[in-house]
Design goal:
The protein is an alpha/beta fold. It has one domain: Spore Coat Polysaccharide Biosynthesis Protein SpsA, Chain A (Alpha-Beta Complex). The chain contains 10 helices and 12 strands. The strands form 3 sheets. Strands 3-2-1-4-10-6-11 form a 7-stranded mixed beta sheet, with helices on both faces. Strands 7-8-9 form a 3-stranded antiparallel beta sheet, with no helix packed on it. The chain is globular. Bound molecules: 2-acetamido-2-deoxy-beta-D-glucopyranose (3 copies). Keywords: Glycoprotein, Golgi apparatus, Manganese, Membrane, Metal-binding, Signal-anchor, Transferase, Transmembrane, Transmembrane helix. It is found in: Endomembrane system; Golgi apparatus membrane. It is an enzyme of class 2 (transferase). Pathway: Protein modification; protein glycosylation. This is Galactosylgalactosylxylosylprotein 3-beta-glucuronosyltransferase.
Length: 342
């Protein structure tokens, strides 16, 4: 009796494991896989199935590629009327976000900053299986040129101690690379292509950004760096600069990191992002707090970094944290007669 049980058990075990693995892989794809999303949304996974025929090289203002660009005509006319410089490099700000009580408040604060920055394209990446109405409506009324993406973090990565927003930042990078997909007919390698000028910056939704920061990062040639305030258990962290070159890091935490810098402390030129198509944020083998180093290692060296903010002597961005809201008196079934989005 016992041996029958064991033999069945061992025959079934591999199949159970296979099913578990398939379910796990499947949660990384959108559930309605047979249906291509509407043009308004872009999920990094569906374009692969559409194939190369659909691929072309649009201008950043192209709306036909699943880019959802808000208020664009309005912004364009504003730009030309106020004489804004249309040859400025575009700043792409990639913002991972997730649903929580303070989400709309944080996004509002960010939009109020970004609205004042010329030639900024906001890439908002939700950690969700579907784009939420809250973020969609918010971006539509934000007055910022924006693209709304979403990708769900697999459940096995939603543990404390693991890096956050990895999938969302990578989805932002994948979208950019898709937008500027090179035509390989000439047989060129990505490194030989000519790319438009632009700057990519990872703008978490809880930080505070001075407008001057965007002027500084706009001139990034490869990878630029600057100090970040209120981070690492110190008033600030900064790259140490000698003779215009980064030679080390002033930091309160793990100074042995190859790039001891916060996500808010650097920007990368679009050319570098596009010419190193394999550079992504890593889950595998990445220790907590090493996301930045693991990413920058793939695209640059410390001695190549371009110090901004007066040779890294000014704090123009702060790693602020919104206090956890107290909802202790919120009832499970709110008694209000109307439903309000907060
Ligand atoms: C626009 O920006 C480019 C690049 O920064 C600069 O070379 C050009 O002089 C600027 N033009 C105007 C009208 O400000
Ligand atoms: C940074 O330092 C270098 C070398 O000391 C100097 O030439 C340059 O003018 C400085 N830049 C700024 C913006 O202060
Ligand atoms: C919740 O309600 C209790 C009792 O009315 C009050 O004492 C408490 O201050 C409230 N909590 C918050 C955070 O407002």
């Amino acid at each position: 009796m016992k041996s029958v049980f064991y033999s069945r058990f061992f025959i079934l075990l591999p199949w159970v494991l296979i099913v578990v693995i398939i379910i796990d892989i499947d949660t990384r794809r959108p559930s309605n896989s047979s249906k291509a999303p509407t043009a308004r949304y872009y999920s990094p996974y569906w374009r692969r199935r559409i194939g190369r025929a659909a691929l072309m090289r649009p201008q950043p203002s192209d709306t036909s590629m699943g880019t959802w660009t808000t208020n664009q005509e309005h912004l364009t006319s504003l730009d030309s009327h106020s004489g804004k410089n249309n040859s400025l490099p575009i700043i792409y700000a990639i913002t991972p976000t997730y649903s929580r009580p303070v989400q709309k408040a944080e996004l509002t604060r960010l939009a109020n900053t970004f609205r004042q920055v010329p030639r900024l394209h906001w890439i908002v990446v939700e950690d969700s299986a579907q784009p939420t109405d809250l973020v969609r409506r918010f971006l539509a009324g934000s007055g910022v040129r924006a693209t709304h993406l979403h990708v769900l973090t697999p459940r096995r990565y939603k543990r404390s101690g693991l890096p956050r927003a990895t999938e969302q930042r990578n989805a932002g990078l994948a979208w950019l690379r898709q937008q500027y997909k090179p035509q390989r007919s000439a047989g060129q390698s990505p490194a030989q292509q000519e790319y438009p000028s632009g700057v990519v910056f990872f703008a978490d939704d809880d930080n505070t950004y001075s407008l001057e920061l965007f002027q500084e990062m706009r001139t990034t040639q490869k990878v630029s760096v600057w100090p970040v305030g209120l981070v690492g258990g110190r008033r600030y962290e900064r790259p140490v600069v000698e003779n215009g070159k980064v030679v080390g890091w002033y930091t309160g935490w793990r100074a042995d990191r190859p790039f001891a810098i916060d996500m808010a402390g650097f920007a990368v030129s679009l050319q570098v992002i596009l010419s190193s198509p394999k550079a992504v944020f890593k889950r595998r083998g990445s220790q907590p707090g090493m996301q930045e180093s693991d990413f920058l290692k793939q695209i640059t060296k410390v001695e190549e970094l371009e110090p901004k903010a007066d040779n890294c002597t000014k704090v123009l961005v702060w790693h602020t944290r919104t206090e956890k809201v107290n909802l202790a008196n919120e009832s499970k079934h709110p008694q209000d007669t109307i439903k309000i989005e907060v």
